[in-house]
Amino acid sequence: MALGINLSFCVKRWVTPALWARLVREDLGLGLVQLSFDLVDPLWPDEVLDKAAGDVRQACAEHGITVHSGFIGLAHYTFNQLLHPEPGVRDAAEHWLTRAYAFCGKAGIRAAGGPLGAIAARPDAVEADEIPAADYADLVARLERLAETARGHGLSELYIEPTPLRREWPWTPAQARRLSDDLAGAAIPWRYCLDWGHAILSPPYAPEEARVEPWLAAIGRDTGAIHIQQSDGRLDRHWDFTEPGVVDPEAVAATLARFGLADRPVFLEVFYPFEETDAAVLDRVRRSVAMLAPVLGGE
Ligand code: FE
Ligand code: MN
After folding, report:
1. CA of 198 to the centre of ligand 2 (A)
2. In terms of Cα–Cα distance, which of 63, 116, 71, 18 is closest to 265?
3. Confidence of residue 272 (pLDDT cuts 50, 70, 90)
């Protein structure tokens, strides 16, 4: 198993490749990261992005870091992306992703991913079991097109991160299975990044279904990476492992092994309040990685 870290904890803090690459290698002792697009905005001007891509390559070479993928952070996720009710906003999300793939290509990052989008809430606040069929068809068409685009920028795979929200897709294992089948002919593979902390939430899942096993049974073979976080199982906490919670790293490792997924990289994905001190964040991330590395790998 390989333990890596999503750079979500660096947002607004260790914002340049020189800063995060040194920290990941020297303070955390890791060599694998997932770059967050909360650190690089694909809509920045070309020359700014080109400089950032070069900096990623240089800092990673210097510190022996591999960037597994570029992942949508909280900023872009906020805008409902590919399922926004306005077609023009969906187009803008496609444009954003196209620029994200171009950046990844330039930075030497071979994969990109994140949550896909969210439909609007209804006036009566009733949440249906799934998004309308027309929205689903439009989403699949856009994902096919995006795979073509990503291939053109030198990427070899794309990732979908399922979210525990009924306005998004996919939020159930069956929906994820269906989407994988519908994307089987894509130019490069659309795989899954499964967030452990999303699968265990109740609601939206019934208490007996709020487990990772139904996801691994449905889409285990399509799952290329894992996110872990500590959680109370009530909301999507993204706590680190210095907090008490319901996620047991040993059980995570055992479950992945049982499903034949021990070779998939596991990324710690934690978020902190902006007002938390830098020292507290560094201390807690360092202690979390020290707890997880013996169980989930690490280099
Ligand atoms: Fe996640
Ligand atoms: Mn999450």
Report:
1. 6
2. 71
3. very high
